Amino acid sequence: MKHTKVFVADDVNEERLALLREAGIEVVKETKLSPEMLAERLGDADGVIVRSATEITAEIMDRARRLRVIGRAGVGVDNIDVKAATKRGIVVMNAPDGNTITTAEHTVALLVSLARNVAQAHGLLQQGIWDKKRFVGVELNGKSLGVIGLGRIGRHVAKIAKGFGMHISGYDPFVTDESAKDFGIALEPLEELLAKSDFITIHTPVTDETRGMIGAAAFSKMKDGVRIVNCARGGLVNEEALLEAIESGKVAGAALDVFESEPLDPKSPLLNHPKIVTTPHLGASTTEAQEGVALAVAEQMRDYLLFGELRNAVNAPSMAAEELERLEPHIELASSLGRFHEQVIGEAAIKEVKIEYSGQLADAECGPVTRAFVSGLLEHVSDRINIVNALHIAEERGIDIITSFTQSSKNFGHDIRTRVKASDQVHIAAGAVFADGVGRITQIEDFALEVIPGGYMLFTRNDDEPGAIGKIGTLLGDNGVNISRFYLGRSEKGGEALAVIEIDTPLEPEVLEKLRSTQSVLTAKQVKL
User: Fold this and answer.
1) Of the four, 190, 250, 267, 406, which is 20 to 30 A from 150 by CA?
2) End of a domain among 445, 471, 500?
3) What pLDDT digit, counting tens, does each position of 61-81 carry?
4) What is the rounded average pLDDT of the residues 497-521?
């Protein structure tokens, strides 16, 4: 087995890392490294595991030439340059389920603490001051809770809050009314949610659209005396605007577990504020969660590095083992078809790719197959192209990728039919996976044939006349070239034949030139599949 190495850059549960070592993967753990030192350590690593402390930047990736996968032991990936990873063909995966219960429970803990002034009362009592009147709270029962972001955590917070007798409304542009109702949540436009909620909790990622979404404009739309909880990501709440809203009386209080800059500056006005509860990013800090995310990311990384199985990848389509096993012959076939096109087309600029799926793939999820074809097609563009960055590279080069599905009988015998437009020419190749599980090329241009792609292959078009094939075989034999397989197809239009010849060793350039100048041979090209 090829030596595989995973570097662990943050404090990840050590016991769970044993799963990687047991699989024969070398695991090296060093934490709190500078970016320079981290880049050096990653020079021979296939994978790296981080939590939230370590940033994986484009510059680090450029020096980590072997890096194939970045695993985040947690949910958020804002400390990883996902766009740069995608461009470089590096998988970014996370553990989206590991922190769900823990973060939801911490959100509710802050919700209760905020309603009943638990933290403030505890702090004062620690100083020996008994003051019941100062800390009159409010009940949660009967109050309206607005949940912004209805992912796993947001939905679980809503589930717990319903047990307190709260009325739940939610906002999430990516969730339908029907699905929200399934979770017992009334979907509302954001402005209406802000206006009606007594408590608001935020559970969205930080993006260009969500950064600072709870700011001065949002506070102006809220009811007086609203209370805010943020256990999601720093930067979602504009901290300066929050302080102003609290001082004006618009906001009765806030509970924050995350901040715009972490660790929080000891001089921050958010600290020791009588109406703000703060915790040091504890949302995922339980024994169960730490063990859970470590185990999840270790399992996912092992399965990807050793078996190619993809789960919880944020920049590539996930593939379970069963799905991968079922699609693998088609993925290999698509890759061969792509490489065939790439070598036949040569230097011509590719403008458009059309892939038509039928037969066994007519009703399948063919994203991985499409990516495999494009990866093979653009193999000459980058030595790091793969299914992660193939579509990204195609988009960068202005290549349109069009896929379609058909049950038409005219495609009988083909699972995958590809048309590549390069310059002003259109090249066609198709293939199918047969009952034996082996993929075969079943059409090249207008020639029907059955070719098992592999090794060095010679493609010749010749006049369809007696003796033409014999001349090709004789020339190869005279030059010491051994033929391992021979396939022949005849044009539907007549007059020409296509020979596909698998050879043991590549042809020398002078032999290829002799072949091209042989009478009856119209074209000859060598490819490696």
Assistant:
1) 250
2) 445
3) 999 999 999 999 987 788 999
4) 92
